[in-house]
Amino acid sequence: MAKKSQVAKKPIVQKKPRGKPDERCIAFCLNGRCCTRKIDRPWSSRVTAAPVPYCRHHAKHGDGAVRVASHPVCGKILVARHRLPKGYRIVYHGARRTSGRDDDKVDWDEDRTLWFYPEGREEGRSNGYIDPTSHKGSVLQFAACVGPGELVNIRQSGRGYGRRDGDYAGMEYVTTMPVPAGTQLVHYYGSEWWRDRPELRRCDVGTEKYPAPKRKTRA
Question: Do 49 and 118 contact (CB within 8 A), yes or no?
Answer without folding.
Answer: yes
